[in-house]
Amino acid sequence: MNWSDVLQEPTLQDIPFKIEMNEWGKIVLSPASNKHGMLQAEIVGFLREHRKPGKIITECSIDTPKGVKVADVAWASIDFFRKYGFDTPYLEAPEICVEIISPSNSTQEMQEKTTLYLSKGAKEVWICDENGLLVVYSYQGLLEDSNFFPNFPRKIEF
């Protein structure tokens, strides 16, 4: 199964799970919680409030060497959109990919996703834990602040 098959499968349209694919083309489901949704909405709100020229994407699918991964939130520059438009999944990661940790996520999984997004061109990966604490990673490792959004919040209040 490939990503376009997943998108067209009627039985997968209204399930309360985040869908990704692993490197063997198998579907991986992650349950969604209301807390996760609120954190996602607050991050989108921050990005919109501190708008830079670009687009905010929720549930952004990115083709990686380990299958299609879906960033909870992404921010992409105008140049990125000129190049990739509405391709699904993106063959390159937008400049910022955000993952919100769910109870089902392991530390190893988040480290792997961070590495995958950076290897596909992301400049920053923001990781938000269940308490709203945010950290930013780049190829240099853990960053003190976002290079794109200097007013980056250390904690999402909700």
Automatic annotation (TrEMBL):
* Domain annotation Putative restriction endonuclease: ranges: 25-137
Q: Which CDD domains match?
A: DUF820-like
The record ties this protein, via InterPro entries, to:
Nuclease_put_TT1808, Restrct_endonuc-II-like, Uma2
Q: Which domain of life is it from?
A: Bacteria
Q: Which Pfam families match?
A: Uma2
Q: What is this protein called?
A: Putative restriction endonuclease domain-containing protein
